[in-house]
Amino acid sequence: MKYDFREIELNAKDKWAEHKAYAVAEDPSKPSFYVLDMFPYPSGAGLHVGHPLGYIASDILARYKTMSGYCVLHPMGFDAFGLPAEQYAIQTNRHPEETTKENIDRYRQQLELLGLGYDWNRSVTTSDPNYYKWTQWIFLQLFNHVYRGDLQKAAPIEELFGHFRHFGSSNHPFLGTAHDAFSADEWNQFDSEKQAAIAMNYRLAYQADAWVNWCEALGTVLANDEVKDGFSERGGHAVEKKRLKQWFLRISTYADRLLLDLEGLNWSAAMKEMQSNWIGKSEGASLGFKVANSEIVLEVFTTRPDTLFGVSFMVLAPEHPLLAEVVKFGFEEALAYAKQASNRSERERQAGSEQATGAFTGSYALHPISGKELPIWVGDYVLAGYGTGAVMAVPAHDTRDHKFAMAFGLPILPVIELPEDESLPYESKEGRLMHSDFLNGLEVKEGISAMLAHLEAKKLGLKTVNYRLRDANFSRQRYWGEPFPIVYSTGIAKAVDVQDLPVELPHMEDFKPTGRPESPLTKAKAWTELPEGIRETDTMPGFAGSSWYFLRYMDPKNNEHFASSAALNYWKQVDVYIGGTEHAVGHLLYARFWHKFLYDLGYVPGHEPFKRLVNQGMILGRSNLVYRETSTGKYVSAGLVPTSKKGFQALHVDVNVVHDDALLPEQVLAIFPEARPHLLVLEEGVLKCGVEIEKMSKSKFNVVNPDAIVEDYGADTLRMYEMFLGPIEQSKPWNTQGIEGVNKFLRRVWRHCISEGGHCVLTSDSPEPAALKSLHTLLKRLHQDIEDMSMNTCISAFMICLNELLDQKCKSIEIFRPFSLALSPFAPFIAEALWEKMGGVGLACKQEFPKVEEKHLVEDQFSYPVSFNGKKRFDLTLPLSLSPSEIQQEVLSHAEAKKWLQGQTLRKVIVVPGRIVNIVLG
RNA sequence: GCCCGGGUGGUGGAAUCGGUAGACACGCAGGACUUAAAAUCCUGUGGGCAGUGAUGUCCGUGCGGGUUCAAGUCCCGCCCCGGGUACCA
């Protein structure tokens, strides 16, 4: 019987369904293992061959772990809420509820084709009310908690109220936004609206007026990580700064822990680096500069207090809150400048960055030590969102300050001795300080600590740690997201009662963005207007649902809790998390933040969600191009086109039509309506196509669908080929041609074990030592490499082993039974069929993974490569029992060696037993 | 600019601790079987030079140096490609 993958796959699927092979239940008698895939946003385009790469790798690991005695959780779900899903619905002029459901069904179908062992009963969908009930619940926990700086831990907001009632705002340990001080009496006198406003400065989920990224085209604000180079990451639309009242998550309170705990994680260095850069911790001093003839004090943050004597002016951000007060009569130009600068989009501000712009305010600040007058300027190179939005400018030792000083003719005061070949601005932290009073003669690093000590002693400033990480904007003015469980009554934001969760998203026919910074939900009057007040109409961003989904898989049907503590304590954390690098700072940082918060509240047993992270590379498309000569309109075969491609237009053609990188003339005529037979310039009767490696996308006609591959070769072949392509972390091009190799491997396994009539032709003969050695070499490899996620080398090991067994004409069932069980994680369908044909009882995928027996691997001789001066000249097989000196003797007395030794002086002999012999001649 | 990855045959890639570079595949070439095709099997396949030939010999892991008996692997200096990030005070 030939290898009929269609029948084999159908049978195996039936058998798995019948035995509920992939249903997972916590088994306390076994150790747990949690393998997680980053769940997909189900796009309208369906899966291409690049998507399942990580799913297949994780499936192999999960199956291997199951067979090795672990209770394994390997779930899959859908990230269905959010901008992309809604944009897709708008484009196709349908409701997101409908399109989302359809896309999920299609995704699931495609995934099921591949034989991935997911327990679909545990699947979650973020847009399902039973799921987002708990997203809302966690939001309410954030709303009702504050952060204690002294304990580095979240605490109930009642603690804050208690402190304010008894002690007012003095000496409280809570981290938040600065506000005016008050006494206990004052607090108790405040009306509830005022108290609520003050509490907003501390809640971990809070509302504030802030400069946010407003995207006109998408009709919503975006978080910092959703904006790249001044454009929206999704769609590439312009983004501008706007001051709006929004919900935020106070992730900044967790900045230090998010940074410190990176250390213990088994993540790639690059990934940790990206997170660490995003958090952007910097240590320095904050100090106040008094404004001359006023009460105003300008706070600045600097990492270089050593250069304080080099300050020659100050610069405020255009959005600085005190700017209007600082600007003197007659200098209104500065206000006009600031207004115009803050109205410019982020993009425009960056584009004009070669030219420093700014204006003088007319005011002067006083140097905190020397008392010297320093002109105060406003300039858009100072960012409102970082530090205090004001800088002390040291043009001699900061490039940006230098550029500004040069543009406006401001003084430049060097305070560090300049090394020979250096010029200003000199930013290095090497050198000796000068013109700096008590710092003169000190090294920069000494100067920093000396100045810090001085500032603190004189109460002029404080040692301060600053973070680049800012609080996460949590409001979106869009329809397709989780509604906030918040109702406003008498102007106060109040939490919806937990019993009333979920607050369900109302069905709306017209859900399109309003174009104003206002959610479409404002139009659902019946939904927003309640007897007790008005509902919040913004919705949560895409990352809300994805920040905790991995916990819900542990106990997805629970109606009382987001997951039971029994389940949480059994699975603990994700052991291996597989996904792309694109989520380095968004999802992974928010998920860590939420997890730490839940840990502080005692809900989860550990403070990090993902122990090990594996980033799969992208599978790139291999595009085919047809070259058309621009001047003549001729379609020219690739071999005849000059390398420079000058004068030629490269047109993408569908790779699913092209065979062996060539098109038949009639195909060309069918694809291009303007093509005529006389316009074709062929080679050997065909039009050869150019090849380019680029991202797989519809517009490039290079998308290969897994369904088509499964149709032609079967799912086992697709699984193995995806793994065989190369290391999982690496990006590599897809080339369907190469698939023959693994397909042939599976056919050979089948044909060797199963007769034409469909019977097992293996014998019960006891296996030869050589066969045992081949098998156990394979097993040893697998045990190592599967854990390392080095699946490509596993596949080669299978091929090597089979090649050897075929050479040996081995037919022993004692070899091929463990061989096919070992194959089961990689090619589960064929393994199931082989297991059955070999008379196995139960399911192959539930058997114990074959163990390595080292005794079959012991060698007693080794073929030594013998080198002279590092160049290999011959091989010599010797017993491994020989000592180095015996080996040396054997080698030197060998006839072949004599030839090379002739007329040469023997300098040295290097013998590494079991490896190499090298003879040094002189 | 800065910070990470990475450069190995025609292609994807392998190579444990510094120890036989190119495993395993694809492709290609030749052959067997076949009326033919498919399928299957066998042989060869980094490059140069010499030889009818077995074979011999030199070069070879982006480039240039270095360490070492021995370097794809370690060190120094460059070049190129991919990713991240950018007025972060």
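Residues 230 and 347 of chain A are 5 Å apart (CA to CA).
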